């Protein structure tokens, strides 16, 4: 993926908007945790049956929150891409995740269930189509981004939802600050392939980590539940492969990764902070390949479908 060089986040390419947004995440998480009590009435109450939807990054955040809510014993929670939510299934509340508030599939779903299922949109702008189609809106304008590739909005959204579950976000914010002060490890910059693994609420983060490297650096990445690694994905592991664990490593898995010729990484720190490390790696890897992470290939900030095909929201 590039020469074995050590880079801090300041050295990756000072001034890039994506880099600045990545560095602001600990502050945004703390602000989200402070906001959580004020918006609690709009978020799922214990015992409610809940669906959470989004597209791309928002879908992966939905996966993470759904698993975290069930692990917290607060009720059955399903996560869907907005285009795949089943018709006719009853939920007490539907959370619509959309940074831009303009994503066509999310807007269409909000309009489809209007009057039948209470909806709450979490977005960066309360005056957008998704927000206006929802019954209630939680606006996280302070975490909005100029970048096409989502970083701080997605993690701030997750911070808000986890805080609502009663989880203390301060350890995650402190861990992320430490990650931001560290260099990107040379073995990660040198890798040819990444497999991200997670368990429970961190599986959604594994999916999101893989997406970030694909979007920003056009890297070969995959993601799976941790215990599924031995059931096929191990076949691609070899020299130059990093198998990155977000969350605790199942017993014996690190040894199996090493035996297959891969480099086991992570598995012991805060999972949200580890995602920040992935963000920094994505910046460094993109620039090592001559790419501009502020202008990722073939991507737009929001996918808007219509007669003319996909469009872009600047």
Q: Work out the count of structural domains.
A: 2
Radius of gyration: 19 Å
Share of helix among residues? 25-40%
CATH H-tier superfamily of the largest domain: Glucose-6-phosphate isomerase like protein, domain 1
The CATH architecture of the largest domain can be given as 3-Layer(aba) Sandwich
**Total strand count, please?**
9
The average pLDDT score comes to 90
Read across the widest sheet, the strand sequence of neighbours is 2-1-3-4-5
CATH class category of the largest domain: Alpha Beta
Based on secondary structure, the structural category is: alpha/beta
Order of helices and strands: HHHEHEEHEHEHHHEHEEHEH
SS element count, helices: 12
- Beta-strand residue percentage: 5-15%
What can be said about the biggest beta sheet? 5 strands, parallel
């Amino acid at each position: 993926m590039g020469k074995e060089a050590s880079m801090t986040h300041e050295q990756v390419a000072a001034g890039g908007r994506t880099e600045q947004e990545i560095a602001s995440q600990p502050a945004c998480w703390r602000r989200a945790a402070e906001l959580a009590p004020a918006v609690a009435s709009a978020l799922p109450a214990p015992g409610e049956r809940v669906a959470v939807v989004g597209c791309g990054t928002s879908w992966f955040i939905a996966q993470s929150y759904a698993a975290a809510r069930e692990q917290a014993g607060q009720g059955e929670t399903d996560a869907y891409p907005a285009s795949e939510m089943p018709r006719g299934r009853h939920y007490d509340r539907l959370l619509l995740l959309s940074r831009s508030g303009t994503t066509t599939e999310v807007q269409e779903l909000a309009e489809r269930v209007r009057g039948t299922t209470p909806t709450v949109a979490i977005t960066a702008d309360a005056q957008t189509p998704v927000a206006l189609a929802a019954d209630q809106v939680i606006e996280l304008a302070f975490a909005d981004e100029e970048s096409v590739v989502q970083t701080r909005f997605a993690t701030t959204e997750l911070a808000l939802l986890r805080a609502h579950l009663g989880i203390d976000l301060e350890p995650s914010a402190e861990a992320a600050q430490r990650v931001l002060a560290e260099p990107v490890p040379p073995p990660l910059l040198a890798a040819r392939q990444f497999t991200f693994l997670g368990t429970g609420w961190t599986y959604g983060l594994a999916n999101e980590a893989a997406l970030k490297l694909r979007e920003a650096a056009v890297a070969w990445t995959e993601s799976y539940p941790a215990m599924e690694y031995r059931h096929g994905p191990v076949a691609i592991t070899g020299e130059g492969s990093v198998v990155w664990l977000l969350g605790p490593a199942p017993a014996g898995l690190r040894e199996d990764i090493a035996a297959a010729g891969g480099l086991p990484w992570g598995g012991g720190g805060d999972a949200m902070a580890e995602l920040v490390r992935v963000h920094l790696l994505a910046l460094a890897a993109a620039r090592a390949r001559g790419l501009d992470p502020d202008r990722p290939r073939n991507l737009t900030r929001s996918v808007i479908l219509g007669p003319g095909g996909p469009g872009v929201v600047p």
